[in-house]
Protein backbone atom coordinates (compact mmCIF):
# COMPACT_ATOMS: atom_id res chain seq x y z
CA UNK A 1 0.00 0.00 0.00
CA UNK A 2 1.15 3.50 -0.64
CA UNK A 3 -0.21 7.04 -0.55
CA UNK A 4 -1.01 8.61 -3.89
CA UNK A 5 -1.88 12.28 -4.32
CA UNK A 6 -4.15 13.30 -7.14
CA UNK A 7 -6.78 15.87 -8.01
CA UNK A 8 -10.28 14.52 -8.55
CA UNK A 9 -12.96 16.84 -9.89
CA UNK A 10 -10.90 19.85 -8.86
CA UNK A 11 -10.34 18.63 -5.32
CA UNK A 12 -6.87 17.69 -4.12
CA UNK A 13 -7.04 14.26 -2.53
CA UNK A 14 -4.82 11.48 -1.26
CA UNK A 15 -5.61 7.78 -1.28
CA UNK A 16 -3.76 4.85 0.23
CA UNK A 17 -3.99 1.89 -2.09
CA UNK A 18 -2.09 -0.99 -3.66
CA UNK A 19 -0.19 0.63 -6.56
CA UNK A 20 -1.74 -1.74 -9.14
CA UNK A 21 -5.28 -1.02 -7.93
CA UNK A 22 -7.26 0.22 -10.90
CA UNK A 23 -8.24 3.89 -11.00
CA UNK A 24 -11.81 2.69 -11.54
CA UNK A 25 -11.80 0.82 -8.23
CA UNK A 26 -10.20 3.73 -6.37
CA UNK A 27 -12.89 6.06 -7.69
CA UNK A 28 -15.74 3.72 -6.82
CA UNK A 29 -14.50 2.12 -3.58
CA UNK A 30 -12.18 4.67 -1.97
CA UNK A 31 -13.71 7.93 -3.19
CA UNK A 32 -17.37 6.76 -3.45
CA UNK A 33 -17.60 8.19 -6.98
CA UNK A 34 -19.74 5.51 -8.60
CA UNK A 35 -20.49 7.35 -11.84
CA UNK A 36 -17.79 5.47 -13.73
CA UNK A 37 -19.08 1.93 -14.29
CA UNK A 38 -17.32 -1.34 -14.88
CA UNK A 39 -18.63 -2.96 -18.04
CA UNK A 40 -16.10 -5.24 -19.65
CA UNK A 41 -13.02 -4.55 -17.54
CA UNK A 42 -10.81 -4.81 -20.61
CA UNK A 43 -10.93 -1.43 -22.32
CA UNK A 44 -13.51 -2.38 -24.92
CA UNK A 45 -16.77 -0.84 -23.69
CA UNK A 46 -15.86 2.60 -22.35
CA UNK A 47 -18.34 2.62 -19.46
CA UNK A 48 -15.46 3.44 -17.08
CA UNK A 49 -14.25 6.40 -19.18
CA UNK A 50 -12.88 9.39 -17.27
CA UNK A 51 -10.64 12.31 -18.20
CA UNK A 52 -7.04 12.08 -17.00
CA UNK A 53 -5.16 15.35 -17.46
CA UNK A 54 -7.81 16.22 -20.03
CA UNK A 55 -7.39 13.01 -22.05
CA UNK A 56 -10.07 10.34 -22.30
CA UNK A 57 -8.94 7.08 -20.68
CA UNK A 58 -10.51 3.80 -19.61
CA UNK A 59 -10.13 3.93 -15.83
CA UNK A 60 -10.18 0.11 -15.66
CA UNK A 61 -6.80 0.10 -17.44
CA UNK A 62 -4.99 2.70 -15.31
CA UNK A 63 -3.03 1.55 -12.25
CA UNK A 64 -3.51 4.12 -9.51
CA UNK A 65 0.24 4.67 -9.11
CA UNK A 66 0.28 6.20 -12.60
CA UNK A 67 -2.24 8.78 -11.32
CA UNK A 68 0.26 10.36 -8.92
CA UNK A 69 -0.12 14.13 -9.50
CA UNK A 70 -2.78 13.64 -12.19
CA UNK A 71 -6.03 15.58 -12.56
CA UNK A 72 -9.03 13.27 -12.97
CA UNK A 73 -12.49 14.37 -14.05
CA UNK A 74 -15.40 11.99 -13.59
CA UNK A 75 -19.04 12.47 -14.52
CA UNK A 76 -19.63 13.81 -11.00
CA UNK A 77 -17.26 16.70 -11.70
CA UNK A 78 -18.42 17.72 -15.13
CA UNK A 79 -21.24 20.11 -14.26
CA UNK A 80 -20.27 23.54 -12.89
CA UNK A 81 -22.15 22.97 -9.63
CA UNK A 82 -22.35 26.62 -8.66
CA UNK A 83 -24.21 27.72 -11.76
CA UNK A 84 -25.96 24.65 -13.15
CA UNK A 85 -26.74 21.13 -11.97
CA UNK A 86 -26.02 19.69 -15.42
CA UNK A 87 -23.28 20.28 -17.96
CA UNK A 88 -24.68 21.29 -21.38
CA UNK A 89 -23.67 17.88 -22.75
CA UNK A 90 -25.69 16.17 -20.02
CA UNK A 91 -28.63 18.47 -20.76
CA UNK A 92 -28.44 17.54 -24.47
CA UNK A 93 -28.37 13.80 -23.70
CA UNK A 94 -31.42 14.33 -21.49
CA UNK A 95 -33.35 16.29 -24.11
CA UNK A 96 -32.54 13.96 -27.00
CA UNK A 97 -33.11 10.66 -25.22
CA UNK A 98 -29.41 9.87 -25.44
CA UNK A 99 -29.60 7.85 -22.22
CA UNK A 100 -31.78 4.85 -21.48
CA UNK A 101 -30.53 2.32 -18.93
CA UNK A 102 -27.70 4.70 -18.03
CA UNK A 103 -24.78 2.30 -17.69
CA UNK A 104 -22.89 3.72 -20.66
CA UNK A 105 -24.02 7.31 -20.15
CA UNK A 106 -21.26 8.68 -17.88
CA UNK A 107 -18.63 7.32 -20.28
CA UNK A 108 -20.54 8.54 -23.33
CA UNK A 109 -20.73 12.04 -21.90
CA UNK A 110 -17.03 12.16 -21.00
CA UNK A 111 -16.12 10.80 -24.44
CA UNK A 112 -18.33 13.51 -25.93
CA UNK A 113 -16.61 16.13 -23.80
CA UNK A 114 -13.21 14.93 -25.04
CA UNK A 115 -14.47 14.85 -28.64
CA UNK A 116 -15.82 18.41 -28.51
CA UNK A 117 -12.61 19.54 -26.87
CA UNK A 118 -10.65 18.25 -29.92
CA UNK A 119 -13.33 18.87 -32.56
CA UNK A 120 -15.71 21.65 -31.49
CA UNK A 121 -17.75 21.20 -34.69
CA UNK A 122 -17.50 17.48 -35.41
CA UNK A 123 -18.75 15.75 -38.53
CA UNK A 124 -20.91 12.66 -38.10
CA UNK A 125 -17.84 10.53 -38.91
CA UNK A 126 -15.86 12.29 -36.17
CA UNK A 127 -18.69 11.74 -33.70
CA UNK A 128 -18.83 8.06 -34.62
CA UNK A 129 -15.08 7.66 -34.23
CA UNK A 130 -14.96 9.67 -31.00
CA UNK A 131 -17.60 7.42 -29.44
CA UNK A 132 -16.49 4.14 -31.04
CA UNK A 133 -14.92 3.05 -27.75
CA UNK A 134 -18.20 3.49 -25.88
CA UNK A 135 -20.77 0.76 -26.33
CA UNK A 136 -24.48 1.33 -25.81
CA UNK A 137 -26.92 -1.59 -25.94
CA UNK A 138 -30.10 0.49 -25.61
CA UNK A 139 -30.27 3.51 -27.84
CA UNK A 140 -29.01 2.29 -31.19
CA UNK A 141 -26.73 5.36 -31.03
CA UNK A 142 -28.83 7.66 -33.23
CA UNK A 143 -30.21 9.66 -30.31
CA UNK A 144 -26.71 9.84 -28.84
CA UNK A 145 -25.35 11.27 -32.11
CA UNK A 146 -28.18 13.82 -32.10
CA UNK A 147 -27.37 14.78 -28.52
CA UNK A 148 -23.69 15.25 -29.38
CA UNK A 149 -24.57 17.34 -32.42
CA UNK A 150 -26.81 19.49 -30.25
CA UNK A 151 -24.08 19.82 -27.61
CA UNK A 152 -21.63 20.96 -30.28
CA UNK A 153 -23.97 23.84 -31.05
CA UNK A 154 -24.13 24.80 -27.35
CA UNK A 155 -21.35 26.84 -25.73
CA UNK A 156 -18.99 24.40 -24.00
CA UNK A 157 -18.28 24.68 -20.31
CA UNK A 158 -14.89 23.50 -19.07
CA UNK A 159 -14.87 20.82 -16.39
CA UNK A 160 -13.37 21.43 -12.96
CA UNK A 161 -9.85 20.04 -13.07
CA UNK B 1 -11.49 -14.31 -11.70
CA UNK B 2 -10.32 -10.85 -10.63
CA UNK B 3 -6.69 -10.51 -9.50
CA UNK B 4 -5.88 -9.58 -5.94
CA UNK B 5 -4.03 -6.32 -6.54
CA UNK B 6 -2.20 -6.50 -3.24
CA UNK B 7 -0.17 -9.40 -4.68
CA UNK B 8 1.42 -7.11 -7.28
CA UNK B 9 4.41 -4.83 -6.89
CA UNK B 10 4.52 -1.71 -9.06
CA UNK B 11 7.43 0.71 -8.95
CA UNK B 12 7.80 3.99 -10.78
CA UNK B 13 11.45 5.13 -11.01
CA UNK B 14 11.71 8.88 -11.54
CA UNK B 15 14.07 8.81 -14.53
CA UNK B 16 15.08 6.53 -17.39
CA UNK B 17 18.54 5.84 -15.84
CA UNK B 18 16.82 4.91 -12.56
CA UNK B 19 14.45 2.58 -14.43
CA UNK B 20 17.38 0.92 -16.25
CA UNK B 21 19.23 0.57 -12.95
CA UNK B 22 16.23 -1.19 -11.40
CA UNK B 23 16.08 -3.56 -14.39
CA UNK B 24 19.83 -4.20 -14.21
CA UNK B 25 19.89 -4.90 -10.47
CA UNK B 26 17.67 -7.93 -10.77
CA UNK B 27 17.25 -8.80 -14.48
CA UNK B 28 13.95 -10.46 -15.18
CA UNK B 29 12.27 -9.37 -11.95
CA UNK B 30 10.37 -6.44 -13.42
CA UNK B 31 8.03 -6.31 -16.39
CA UNK B 32 7.76 -2.80 -17.84
CA UNK B 33 4.27 -1.32 -18.09
CA UNK B 34 3.50 1.79 -20.13
CA UNK B 35 -0.10 2.68 -21.03
CA UNK B 36 -1.50 -0.53 -19.55
CA UNK B 37 -3.81 -1.29 -22.48
CA UNK B 38 -2.50 -4.85 -22.63
CA UNK B 39 -1.24 -5.74 -19.14
CA UNK B 40 -4.15 -4.17 -17.25
CA UNK B 41 -6.57 -6.24 -19.33
CA UNK B 42 -4.76 -9.33 -18.09
CA UNK B 43 -4.89 -8.00 -14.53
CA UNK B 44 -8.66 -7.51 -14.68
CA UNK B 45 -9.09 -11.03 -16.06
CA UNK B 46 -6.93 -12.51 -13.31
CA UNK B 47 -4.30 -13.76 -15.74
CA UNK B 48 -1.46 -11.25 -15.35
CA UNK B 49 1.52 -13.55 -14.82
CA UNK B 50 4.24 -11.01 -13.87
CA UNK B 51 3.92 -10.01 -10.22
CA UNK B 52 6.54 -7.23 -10.29
CA UNK B 53 5.98 -4.33 -12.63
CA UNK B 54 7.91 -1.21 -13.44
CA UNK B 55 5.98 1.78 -14.77
CA UNK B 56 7.61 3.67 -17.61
CA UNK B 57 4.48 5.60 -18.54
CA UNK B 58 5.64 8.86 -16.94
CA UNK B 59 9.17 8.87 -18.44
CA UNK B 60 9.33 11.93 -20.68
CA UNK B 61 12.68 10.63 -22.02
CA UNK B 62 10.65 8.01 -23.91
CA UNK B 63 7.98 10.34 -25.27
CA UNK B 64 9.32 12.35 -28.18
CA UNK B 65 9.20 12.61 -31.95
CA UNK B 66 12.44 13.84 -33.51
CA UNK B 67 12.44 14.79 -37.18
CA UNK B 68 15.54 15.29 -39.31
CA UNK B 69 15.89 15.66 -43.07
CA UNK B 70 16.56 11.92 -43.45
CA UNK B 71 14.62 10.21 -40.69
CA UNK B 72 11.99 10.41 -37.99
CA UNK B 73 12.59 8.89 -34.57
CA UNK B 74 9.74 8.11 -32.22
CA UNK B 75 10.31 7.48 -28.55
CA UNK B 76 8.90 4.15 -27.39
CA UNK B 77 6.46 6.07 -25.17
CA UNK B 78 4.88 7.84 -28.14
CA UNK B 79 1.14 7.23 -27.93
CA UNK B 80 -1.07 6.43 -30.91
CA UNK B 81 -2.68 9.83 -30.37
CA UNK B 82 0.77 11.47 -30.61
CA UNK B 83 1.34 9.61 -33.88
CA UNK B 84 -2.00 10.71 -35.32
CA UNK B 85 -1.31 14.35 -34.43
CA UNK B 86 2.11 14.47 -36.13
CA UNK B 87 2.08 16.15 -39.54
CA UNK B 88 5.35 14.56 -40.75
CA UNK B 89 4.02 11.07 -40.01
CA UNK B 90 0.81 11.98 -41.84
CA UNK B 91 2.74 13.12 -44.93
CA UNK B 92 5.72 10.74 -45.03
CA UNK B 93 4.39 7.64 -43.25
CA UNK B 94 0.64 7.54 -43.93
CA UNK B 95 0.47 3.78 -43.33
CA UNK B 96 1.65 4.29 -39.76
CA UNK B 97 -0.81 7.14 -39.24
CA UNK B 98 -3.60 4.90 -40.58
CA UNK B 99 -2.58 1.99 -38.36
CA UNK B 100 -2.49 4.29 -35.31
CA UNK B 101 -6.01 5.43 -36.19
CA UNK B 102 -7.44 1.93 -36.06
CA UNK B 103 -5.56 0.80 -32.95
CA UNK B 104 -8.41 0.47 -30.45
CA UNK B 105 -10.60 3.37 -29.37
CA UNK B 106 -9.64 7.00 -28.77
CA UNK B 107 -9.21 6.21 -25.05
CA UNK B 108 -6.83 3.37 -25.89
CA UNK B 109 -4.96 5.52 -28.41
CA UNK B 110 -4.48 8.12 -25.66
CA UNK B 111 -2.76 5.54 -23.44
CA UNK B 112 -1.34 2.85 -25.71
CA UNK B 113 2.24 3.36 -26.91
CA UNK B 114 4.10 2.41 -30.05
CA UNK B 115 6.77 0.75 -27.89
CA UNK B 116 4.18 -1.33 -26.09
CA UNK B 117 2.61 -2.40 -29.36
CA UNK B 118 6.01 -3.69 -30.52
CA UNK B 119 7.27 -5.23 -27.28
CA UNK B 120 3.98 -6.98 -26.56
CA UNK B 121 4.90 -8.84 -29.74
CA UNK B 122 1.45 -9.92 -30.82
CA UNK B 123 1.45 -11.19 -34.41
CA UNK B 124 -1.89 -9.36 -34.81
CA UNK B 125 -0.60 -5.95 -33.64
CA UNK B 126 -1.60 -2.98 -35.79
CA UNK B 127 1.60 -0.96 -36.18
CA UNK B 128 4.20 -3.66 -37.15
CA UNK B 129 3.13 -4.18 -40.80
CA UNK B 130 3.62 -0.44 -41.42
CA UNK B 131 6.90 -0.38 -39.49
CA UNK B 132 8.19 -3.34 -41.49
CA UNK B 133 7.47 -1.79 -44.87
CA UNK B 134 8.97 1.53 -43.77
CA UNK B 135 12.25 -0.25 -42.94
CA UNK B 136 12.13 0.70 -39.25
CA UNK B 137 15.07 0.23 -36.94
CA UNK B 138 14.77 -0.03 -33.17
CA UNK B 139 17.12 1.21 -30.47
CA UNK B 140 17.26 -0.74 -27.22
CA UNK B 141 18.78 0.65 -24.03
CA UNK B 142 20.04 -0.84 -20.81
CA UNK B 143 22.44 0.16 -18.06
CA UNK B 144 25.06 -1.56 -20.27
CA UNK B 145 24.50 0.82 -23.18
CA UNK B 146 22.43 1.07 -26.33
CA UNK B 147 22.13 -0.97 -29.51
CA UNK B 148 20.26 -0.42 -32.73
CA UNK B 149 19.00 -3.16 -35.03
CA UNK B 150 16.56 -3.54 -37.91
CA UNK B 151 13.01 -3.96 -36.63
CA UNK B 152 12.73 -7.00 -38.91
CA UNK B 153 15.25 -8.74 -36.59
CA UNK B 154 13.39 -7.84 -33.38
CA UNK B 155 10.84 -10.68 -33.29
CA UNK B 156 12.33 -14.15 -32.84
CA UNK B 157 9.25 -16.37 -32.57
CA UNK B 158 5.74 -16.20 -31.13
CA UNK B 159 5.87 -13.50 -28.41
CA UNK B 160 9.68 -13.89 -28.20
CA UNK B 161 11.91 -10.93 -28.98
CA UNK B 162 15.60 -10.05 -28.79
CA UNK B 163 14.93 -7.75 -25.83
CA UNK B 164 17.14 -8.78 -22.89
CA UNK B 165 15.59 -8.80 -19.40
CA UNK B 166 17.47 -5.62 -18.46
CA UNK B 167 16.64 -3.78 -21.69
CA UNK B 168 13.92 -1.33 -22.68
CA UNK B 169 12.86 -0.39 -26.18
CA UNK B 170 13.98 3.24 -26.41
CA UNK B 171 13.01 4.41 -29.88
CA UNK B 172 11.88 3.52 -33.39
CA UNK B 173 13.48 5.20 -36.41
CA UNK B 174 11.99 5.39 -39.90
CA UNK B 175 14.06 6.60 -42.87
CA UNK B 176 12.34 9.32 -44.92
CA UNK B 177 12.97 7.71 -48.27
CA UNK B 178 9.60 6.47 -49.47
CA UNK B 179 8.25 9.70 -50.94
CA UNK B 180 7.65 8.37 -54.48
CA UNK B 181 6.18 5.05 -53.38
CA UNK B 182 2.61 3.93 -53.85
CA UNK B 183 1.22 2.63 -50.58
CA UNK B 184 -1.52 0.36 -49.31
CA UNK B 185 -2.76 -0.82 -45.95
CA UNK B 186 -5.85 -2.71 -44.97
CA UNK B 187 -6.95 -4.47 -41.83
CA UNK B 188 -9.65 -7.12 -41.86
CA UNK B 189 -11.38 -7.63 -38.54
CA UNK B 190 -14.78 -8.66 -37.29
CA UNK B 191 -16.06 -5.08 -37.15
CA UNK B 192 -15.07 -1.72 -38.58
CA UNK B 193 -14.15 -0.26 -35.20
CA UNK B 194 -12.03 -1.61 -32.38
CA UNK B 195 -11.48 -5.12 -33.67
CA UNK B 196 -8.27 -7.08 -33.40
CA UNK B 197 -7.21 -7.99 -36.91
CA UNK B 198 -7.89 -11.39 -38.45
CA UNK B 199 -5.27 -10.39 -41.01
CA UNK B 200 -3.70 -7.13 -42.16
CA UNK B 201 -1.42 -6.19 -45.04
CA UNK B 202 0.71 -3.13 -45.68
CA UNK B 203 2.54 -2.50 -48.94
CA UNK B 204 4.87 -0.02 -50.59
CA UNK B 205 5.77 -0.20 -54.26
CA UNK B 206 7.79 1.69 -56.80
CA UNK B 207 6.88 1.20 -60.46
CA UNK B 208 8.46 2.46 -63.64
CA UNK B 209 6.51 3.71 -66.63
CA UNK B 210 6.11 0.20 -68.07
CA UNK B 211 4.46 -1.00 -64.82
CA UNK B 212 7.59 -2.92 -63.87
CA UNK B 213 7.93 -3.14 -60.09
CA UNK B 214 11.36 -1.79 -59.20
CA UNK B 215 10.94 -1.96 -55.43
CA UNK B 216 8.34 -3.65 -53.26
CA UNK B 217 7.87 -4.08 -49.54
CA UNK B 218 5.03 -6.09 -48.01
CA UNK B 219 4.30 -6.44 -44.29
CA UNK B 220 1.59 -8.57 -42.72
CA UNK B 221 -0.12 -9.18 -39.39
CA UNK B 222 -1.49 -12.56 -38.32
CA UNK B 223 0.05 -14.45 -41.23
CA UNK B 224 2.91 -15.99 -39.27
CA UNK B 225 3.86 -16.32 -35.59
CA UNK B 226 5.39 -12.84 -35.64
CA UNK B 227 4.66 -9.69 -37.64
CA UNK B 228 6.37 -10.47 -40.92
CA UNK B 229 7.64 -9.25 -44.26
CA UNK B 230 6.22 -11.31 -47.14
CA UNK B 231 9.50 -11.91 -48.93
CA UNK B 232 8.35 -14.69 -51.26
CA UNK B 233 5.56 -12.54 -52.65
CA UNK B 234 7.98 -9.62 -52.92
CA UNK B 235 10.46 -11.76 -54.88
CA UNK B 236 7.72 -13.01 -57.18
CA UNK B 237 7.02 -9.43 -58.24
CA UNK B 238 10.37 -7.65 -58.06
CA UNK B 239 11.58 -6.46 -61.48
CA UNK B 240 8.49 -8.02 -63.06
CA UNK B 241 5.87 -6.22 -65.09
CA UNK B 242 2.57 -6.13 -63.27
CA UNK B 243 0.01 -8.22 -65.17
CA UNK B 244 -2.43 -11.10 -64.71
CA UNK B 245 0.37 -13.68 -64.70
CA UNK B 246 2.54 -11.95 -62.10
CA UNK B 247 -0.44 -11.09 -59.90
CA UNK B 248 -1.40 -14.78 -59.86
CA UNK B 249 2.20 -15.77 -59.12
CA UNK B 250 2.37 -13.27 -56.24
CA UNK B 251 -0.87 -14.62 -54.76
CA UNK B 252 0.51 -18.15 -54.93
CA UNK B 253 3.81 -17.10 -53.36
CA UNK B 254 2.05 -15.32 -50.52
CA UNK B 255 -0.16 -18.32 -49.77
CA UNK B 256 2.92 -20.58 -49.84
CA UNK B 257 4.88 -18.46 -47.36
CA UNK B 258 1.95 -17.76 -45.04
CA UNK B 259 1.73 -19.84 -41.85
CA UNK B 260 -1.54 -18.63 -40.34
CA UNK B 261 -3.31 -20.43 -37.55
CA UNK B 262 -6.86 -21.27 -36.52
CA UNK B 263 -7.84 -19.34 -33.41
CA UNK B 264 -10.81 -17.56 -31.81
CA UNK B 265 -10.68 -14.74 -34.35
CA UNK B 266 -10.44 -16.65 -37.61
CA UNK B 267 -9.18 -19.71 -39.44
CA UNK B 268 -5.89 -20.33 -41.19
CA UNK B 269 -7.64 -20.96 -44.48
CA UNK B 270 -9.60 -17.72 -44.30
CA UNK B 271 -6.53 -15.71 -43.31
CA UNK B 272 -4.43 -16.99 -46.20
CA UNK B 273 -7.22 -16.43 -48.73
CA UNK B 274 -7.94 -12.91 -47.47
CA UNK B 275 -4.25 -12.00 -47.39
CA UNK B 276 -3.96 -13.01 -51.04
CA UNK B 277 -7.06 -10.94 -51.82
CA UNK B 278 -5.56 -7.93 -50.06
CA UNK B 279 -2.35 -8.33 -52.04
CA UNK B 280 -4.31 -8.52 -55.26
CA UNK B 281 -6.31 -5.43 -54.29
CA UNK B 282 -3.04 -3.57 -53.69
CA UNK B 283 -1.53 -4.72 -56.99
CA UNK B 284 -4.62 -3.96 -59.09
CA UNK B 285 -4.70 -0.52 -57.52
CA UNK B 286 -1.18 0.05 -58.82
CA UNK B 287 -2.38 -0.53 -62.39
CA UNK B 288 -4.95 2.26 -62.18
Quick recap of the structure?
The complex is a heterodimer of chains A (161) and B (288). Chain A is of the alpha+beta class.
> Which class do the helix and strand fractions of chain A yield?
alpha+beta
Summed up, the helix count of chain A is 5
CATH class of the largest domain in chain A: Alpha Beta
Number of strands of chain B: 14
| Main β-sheet description of chain B | 5 strands, antiparallel
Output the helix-strand order of chain B: EHEHEEEHHHHHHEEEEEEEEEHHH
Assign the CATH superfamily of the largest domain in chain A.
Beta-grasp domain
Radius of gyration of chain B: 19 Å
- DSSP strand content of chain B: 15-25%
What is the CATH fold-level name of the largest domain in chain A?
Answer: Ubiquitin-like (UB roll)
Count of alpha/pi helices of chain B: 11
The CATH class name of the largest domain in chain B reads Alpha Beta
The CATH architecture of the largest domain in chain B is: 2-Layer Sandwich
What does this structure look like?
The complex is a heterodimer of chains A (161) and B (288). By secondary structure, chain A is of the alpha+beta class. Chain A has 2 domains: 2-77, Ubiquitin-like (UB roll), CATH 3.10.20; 88-152, DNA polymerase, domain 1 (Orthogonal Bundle), CATH 1.10.150.120. Helix content of chain A is 30%, strand content 16%. Chain A has 5 helices and 5 strands, in the order E-E-H-E-E-E-H-H-H-H. Chain A has a 5-stranded mixed beta sheet with strand order 2-1-5-3-4, with helices on both faces. In chain A, helix 2 packs antiparallel against helix 5. Chain A starts with a strand and ends in a 9-residue tail after the last helix. The mean pLDDT of chain A is 94. Chain B has 3 domains: 5-55, 2-Layer Sandwich (Uridine Diphospho-n-acetylenolpyruvylglucosamine Reductase, domain 2), CATH 3.30.43; 60-175, Uridine Diphospho-n-acetylenolpyruvylglucosamine Reductase, domain 3, CATH 3.30.465.10; 182-287, CO dehydrogenase flavoprotein, C-terminal domain (Enolase-like, domain 1, 2-Layer Sandwich). Chain B has helices at residues 16-25, 39-44, 80-85, 87-92, 94-101, 106-111, 114-119, 128-133, 231-237, 244-257, 268-287, and strands at residues 9-11, 31-33, 52-55, 65-67, 71-75, 137-142, 145-150, 155-157, 160-161, 168-175, 182-188, 199-207, 213-221, 228-229. Chain B has a 5-stranded antiparallel beta sheet. Chain B has a 4-stranded antiparallel beta sheet with strand order 11-12-13-14, sandwiched between helices. In chain B, helix 9 runs antiparallel to helix 10 (244-257). The termini of chain B are far apart. The model of chain B has no long low-confidence stretch (mean pLDDT 95).
Amino acid sequence: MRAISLTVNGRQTSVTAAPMKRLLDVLREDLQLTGAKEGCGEGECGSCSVLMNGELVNSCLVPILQCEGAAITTIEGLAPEATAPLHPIQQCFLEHGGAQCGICTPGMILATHHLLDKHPHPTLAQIQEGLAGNLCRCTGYMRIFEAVQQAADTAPVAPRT
Amino acid sequence: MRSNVSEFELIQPATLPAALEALATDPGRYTPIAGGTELMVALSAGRLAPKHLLSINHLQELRFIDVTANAITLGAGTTFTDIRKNSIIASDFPLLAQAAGWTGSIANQNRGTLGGNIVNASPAADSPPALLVYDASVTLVSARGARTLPYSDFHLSYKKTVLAPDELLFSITLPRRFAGYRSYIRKVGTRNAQAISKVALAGLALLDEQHVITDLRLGAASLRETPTRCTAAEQALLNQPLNEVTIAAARAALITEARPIDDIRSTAKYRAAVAANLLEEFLRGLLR
